[in-house]
Design brief:
- The protein has one domain.
- The chain contains two helices and three strands.
- About 25% of the residues lie in helices and about 25% in strands.
- It has helices spanning about 35-40, 50-60, and strands spanning about 1-10, 10-15, 40-45.
- The protein is of the alpha+beta class.
- It binds zinc ion.
- Zinc ion binds near residues 11 and 13.
Length: about 60
């Protein structure tokens, strides 16, 4: 299964919404989401997610 992910703070997180990751980390430090921010979002297999909190959030959902 593939998820939108973003690389932030040396970890790959799952994107929850336009500001935060599944673990609660804010990745969007700007007031507006720019095109370059959107380009940083990559669809990846959950195995490529390195943030343990983000990973557990998808495992919890089954
Ligand atoms: Zn995370």
């Amino acid at each position: 299964m593939f998820f939108p992910t973003i690389y932030s703070a040396d970890e790959r997180h799952i994107v929850k919404d336009k500001n935060t990751c599944a673990c609660g980390t804010r990745y969007n430090v700007f007031a507006m989401l720019t095109r370059s921010d959107l380009r940083k979002i990559r669809f990846k297999h959950y195995k490529e997610v390195t943030c343990p909190k983000c990973k557990s959030s998808i495992i919890d959902k089954g």
